[in-house]
Design a protein that fits this description.
The protein is an alpha+beta fold. It is built from 23 helices and ten strands. A hairpin with a 2-residue loop joins strand 4 and strand 5. Helix 7 packs across helix 8. It is flat, with a radius of gyration of 34 Å.
Length: about 500
């Protein structure tokens, strides 16, 4: 495999952000490469051998600087000469001294235009550990207790729970689980005092933080907030039945009316099951993604265009290259850098054309999706596109990974359009993604007090859409959609 081909394959599998970073690194390392930050996009030219040199600018280096200076002088005219003469006659030391003495005192702010830019008022949101460490500083803990508390904070997971489980070694074995007594010994604290210090930390804001599991987290909140004894008993002894909504079993075991269990469950649901919820470092619901290509409808035709915004357009800096080639000692070095630059430019252009070509093939095969939505997504595998564009399946896989397309139906990864087929009675096969959306729609319309079982969903799919699917497949798709089983979806109040 030639170096050019290796580079082309490597660039092909890079995401958009990775490509931008790769271009930046190459520009820093290769002196003959230049970008388009200060020049309009140039046209393609050819070198003496007839090979295309993409983006070679006609004016480079010193010639470009001279041209800009001439243009500036022509625009300013004689006024610039007058200004220069006046500037030379100014006593700058006296000017600065007078300006300092005459500086008015700051007045009260009278409007938004006098306020500092909003960027200067922004600050980073405090993380959960930062919030807890501030409370630690305000506490009256002793030095050994503070060291113990720091070890506790260093072992919190993303949900705010204390995670003392062992970690996996490179050889596959795991280190033993820690205990709070062992942490206390490491901090120089009496192990008998560790539970009390931990409990005090669990009552910090947010209440329940630093708990070792969900049960302990809810019990701490129930005690701090003064919950009823029945609420505490249900959390302590029947958390498993609470998760399964098995309220009858709770009522029988505790010998209380089921109506009282319902009321307690309503109060328990008000407690926080994830103390770190309001201190997440990132917003899991919104992720900014820049599409690689756009698909838009022009009249009756679907058009695919690449998104080159933010991606530097490279060209060969001819002026600098010619100047460096005059030095015999640098000729070999510059020749190698010139070849590398040409390979990179061609590889980037080939990557762009390949992504557009594959996207056009996807649009052609999934036209119903672009016209009518997800429910009309057709089954398609890598081989279908590979045969149509004359490429290997592995190449199609690289092209569609971490590449995104903006469509009238939304923003999708190119991989999204590849789905296995599900058989339908007397109709064309349907894509698995469409089946998932059909299952989601059925569950959204169900009676929340009497949710549908997986087998009932199988029967509805067969009756309404003619989709033949097994119950275990419905369960798998439901889990992939993040939907609970029917027993856990049931709502009695």
């Amino acid at each position: 495999m030639t170096p050019q081909l290796q580079q082309a394959i490597r660039l092909l599998q890079l995401s958009r952000l990775e490509l931008i970073e790769e271009i930046r690194k190459e520009c820093d390392a290769n002196p003959v490469l230049a970008d388009e930050e200060f020049e309009p996009r140039p046209r393609s030219n050819t070198d003496s051998s007839g090979a295309e040199v993409i983006g070679t600018a006609p004016e480079q280096g010193e010639a470009r600087i001279d041209r800009l200076d001439e243009r500036r002088r022509a625009e300013t005219g004689s006024a610039e000469k007058t200004d220069t003469k006046q500037v030379n006659e100014i006593d700058w030391e006296q000017f600065l001294e007078n300006r300092t003495l005459q500086q008015p005192l700051p007045a009260s702010r009278g409007g938004f235009e006098e306020l500092p830019p909003i960027e200067q008022n922004l600050t980073k949101a405090a993380s959960l550990v930062d919030h807890l460490r501030w409370q630690l500083q305000m506490s009256d803990f002793t030095e050994s207790e503070k060291r113990f508390a720091e070890l506790i904070l260093g072992n919190l997971d993303d949900n705010g729970f204390l995670d003392l489980k062992g970690v996996e070694r490179p050889d596959g074995t795991r280190t033993p689980d820690l205990t709070i007594e062992e942490l206390a010994e490491e901090a120089g604290l009496d192990p008998e005092d560790a539970p009390e210090v931990l409990r005090m930390m669990q009552e910090w804001d947010p209440v329940g933080v630093c708990s070792r599991d969900l049960r302990e987290c809810l019990l701490v909140q129930a005690e701090v907030f003064g919950s009823l004894d029945l609420d505490v008993t249900i959390i302590d002894k029947h958390l498993h039945n609470l998760e399964k909504h098995n309220y009858q079993a709770i009522a029988r075991d505790l010998k209380v009316p089921v109506e009282e269990v319902y009321e307690s469950v309503k109060e328990i649901q008000k407690l926080e099951s994830r103390p770190a919820r309001n201190f997440s470092e990132t917003d899991e619901k919104q992720i900014a993604i820049t599409p690689d290509v756009y698909v838009v409808k022009d009249s009756e035709k679907w058009v695919v265009t690449d998104n080159d915004r933010g991606v530097q357009r490279l060209y060969i800096n001819e002026a600098l290259t010619k100047q460096l080639l005059k030095d015999p000692s640098a000729k070999e070095f510059i020749g190698e850098k010139l070849r590398n630059a040409q390979w990179l430019i061609r590889a980037i252009e080939q990557r762009r054309k390949t992504i557009i070509r594959v996207t056009e093939c996807i649009v052609e095969k999934q036209r119903e999706f672009f016209e009518r939505g997800v429910a009309h997504l057709k089954p398609m595998i890598l081989r279908d596109v590979a045969e149509a564009v004359g490429m290997h399946e592995s190449t199609i896989s690289r092209v569609t990974t971490n590449k995104y397309v903006h469509t009238p139906q939304g923003l999708f990864e190119l991989k999204y359009f590849f789905n296995s087929s599900i058989r339908r009675v007397a109709e064309e096969d349907i894509a698995s993604e469409s089946v998932k959306q059909a299952i989601k729609k059925i569950i959204e319309g169900e009676d929340k007090q009497n949710p549908l079982s997986d087998q009932a969903i199988v029967e509805i799919l067969a009756k309404q859409d003619g989709i033949q699917i097994a119950r275990r497949t419905v369960a798998k798709y439901r889990e992939m959609l993040g939907i609970l089983a029917s027993s856990k979806r049931k709502k009695l109040f």
